[in-house]
Amino acid sequence: MGKRKTVAVLTATALAGAAFAATAQSAGAHGREQFFNRTDTYPVFQNRPAGDAVTDETVAEISTVTQDGKTMIYTDAAGKRIGFLDISDPDRIKGLGTLSLKELGDDEDEPTSVTVVGDYVLVVVNTSKSYTEPSGRVDVIRIADRTRVRSIDLGGQPDSIAVDKKAEHVAIAIENERDEEATPAGGQEGDLPQFPAGFVQLLDLTGGPATWTAHKVALVNPDGTALKSFTDAGLDTPIDPEPEYVSFSEDGRLALTLQENNGIVLIDAARHRISKVFSAGRATVTGIDTKDDGVIDPTGSIKDTPREPDAIGWLDDRYVGTANEGDWKGGTRGWTVFDTRTGKIRWDSGNTLENLAIKVGLHSESRAGKKGIEPEGLATAEFNGTKYAFVGSERSNFVAVYNIEKPANPKFVQVLPTTNGPEGILPIPSRGLLAVSSETDDASAGVRSAVTLYKLGSDQPAFPQIESEKNIGWGTLGALSAVPGKAHQLVSVTDAGYSTTGILTIDDSKTPAEITKRLEVTDAAGKAVPLDAEGIYARPEGGYWLAVEGATGPENKLVLVDKKGVVQRSVPLPADVAAGLKAQGFEGVTATTDKNGEHLYAVVQREVSTDPKGVDRIGRYDVKTGKWTWYGYPLETTTTAGDWIGLSEVTVVGDGKLAVIERDKLNGPNAKIKRIYTVDLPKTDPAPGTLPVLKKKPAVDVLPFLQSTHGWTQEKLEGMTIGGDGNVYISTDNDALDDSTGETVFLKLGKADKLFR
């Protein structure tokens, strides 16, 4: 593992209250508690055109669905196309191919949004030559044969699109977005105004597509001056409105966000005119993590910050909710409910969304100094008689679900894990489904854009499998150990994903499992000691042994800390072994204590360069004598470019028997080897300088367990132990959300005496 960002301790600020526990109750129409659970995750690179490389950037951003709810259509700006997916079976999404915009226009045309109207999908296309020459169109495509039947010029650069319930009007936000690198006169780089001003384009859907008519709703006066309603509302730079997101109410009114202007506009779509304007306001938010310092510490605050809302949705015909992502001046890390009659705030989530991310291990600490979790998407819908709001976090890779039966007082229901950068949130109430499309795609980092489906109706939420209480920030659960004498207590330790090292106590008797304590690793003077701790062993006599991976071979070591977390001793690798390692060294440690003393067993992740190819090492260290004894471990092979096979964890199974995790470095649909093997140690120690290769025995193929979550299959299966209850537990390292979805899988596989026979 390479050097990563640096975590850890949540201090005095309380996490979200009882209403924002990681799971809550939501009653369906018949009073039964219902939850959404994931059914399938589909990487959209699998739906790419023939001839495109598997590594080409392919994304799913905004999506829509046909009237029967069985075909999903999404925008792929990176590929300059739209994609089609068969979701008739929510447990198995199928690709139906794509339609390239190159076939309809220019190579550089980019789709920005889509919506379905009857038998047609309307695709909003950005055709701008530059920021100062914005242009766009909407293509009307017959879904049955994917033929364009009409193209309507929009007169500017479009963003979002929405259709009203009766399919009488379509609204398109014409943003004419700013150039973040341009500096207007008297302003700073990226500031407004940057002309031309944006507006709203309304389509009246009378008759068929050939007779649809467009009507521009201007957001400035004909001479370019600001509308009085905008200045009266106190909007930022009202001479340059930049529409972001549009949404229709059930009764046909249109709500529009002006993100950079920090405003909300209501429009009478039938009359093509503005009916109300109000500011999104400013907020002071306390109890959040505001420093990118590798420490999860929600004691910071942002003061008097504009909300700068992105997505907007109607909770009913009176209230709207906004996801306050922020742009260049603001962002308040939550979502807000506004009363459209008065323009006043009725409810605000405050710090609870960010604290939720911390609680379930999805806090992206690297974004703390910017806009935090960045709530970007928001959608609302009624399922089985219950109204819900769905709020997506772009940076922490989740969607929070709320019961909005009382729209002025939303109640948190659950959190849904997503893949990286959830952009589109699409409720499909007719089929009890929610679809989320995530836009981040980087094949070189193993991060791929995907569409995920969730279905309502489960009695219990499947996520999270582990969470924290008592103000504890956590992540990178790449090590596990049972605590001697405690039937339901495990420990883990954080690695170099954070700037300080914490030993985490886990109560495995609960569902989800609960992290109940964090112990800081320090030196004798009480100063935090940062370690890339990849393995942990809880000693019967108290204290812990840590396996610490070094940036170079000689920096690998076993570290003894006492029960207070104070470092007592360091044991380096033997010089000859260290010389043959690079960055991937110690990965796991376990031990036995008997009449012969304490003996540590440690695994290194990759082969030592002087050893036979395909043979890894397991070492035994006699704490009393300081002697190392080494055994060879035969690794599986891989033919995948850039892949490798290595060891990630070790635990004692019984007298002379060890269990180890062997895994590849692949994730998602490419993951193949996530296994636990056992090895029997010889009764006689090998001769010094030799490396006898042990015979391994398959015990558990963990890959099906990882795939059973129906999400993105995690790469880093790194934690394993036998708990005091006799069960085998495993965990995945979420890499502190660095090139990872951030989801932690924590599972009980079954009884050790059955798995490790």
Q: Main traits of this protein?
A:
50 strands, 757 residues, five-stranded mixed beta sheet, Tachylectin-2, Chain A, single chain, Methylamine Dehydrogenase, Chain H, four-stranded antiparallel beta sheet, disordered N terminus, 2 domains, mainly beta
Provide a brief overview of the structure.
By secondary structure, the chain is mostly beta strands. The chain is 4% helix and 42% strand. The protein has five helices and 50 strands.
Description:
This protein is mainly β and 757 residues long. It has two domains: 18-466, YVTN repeat-like/Quinoprotein amine dehydrogenase (Methylamine Dehydrogenase, Chain H); 474-755, Tachylectin-2, Chain A, CATH 2.115.10. Helix content is 4%, strand content 42%. It has five helices and 50 strands. The chain has a five-stranded mixed sheet with strand order 31-35-34-33-32, with no helix packed on it. A four-stranded antiparallel sheet has the order 1-30-29-28, with no helix packed on it. A four-stranded antiparallel sheet has the order 2-3-4-5, with no helix packed on it. The longest helix has 8 residues, at 352-359. The protein is elongated and about 90 Å long. Mean pLDDT is 94; it is low at 1-26.
Please name the CATH architecture of the largest domain. 7 Propeller
Tally of separate helices: 5
Low-pLDDT residue intervals, each spanning 5 or more residues = 1-26
Can you identify the CATH class of the largest domain?
A: Mainly Beta
Can you tell me the overall shape?
elongated
Which percent band covers the strand fraction? 35-45%
Q: Rounded to an integer, what's the Rg over CA atoms?
A: 28 Å
Predict the CATH topology of the largest domain. Methylamine Dehydrogenase, Chain H
Straight-line N-to-C gap:
32 Å
Number of strands: 50
Largest sheet: 5 strands, mixed
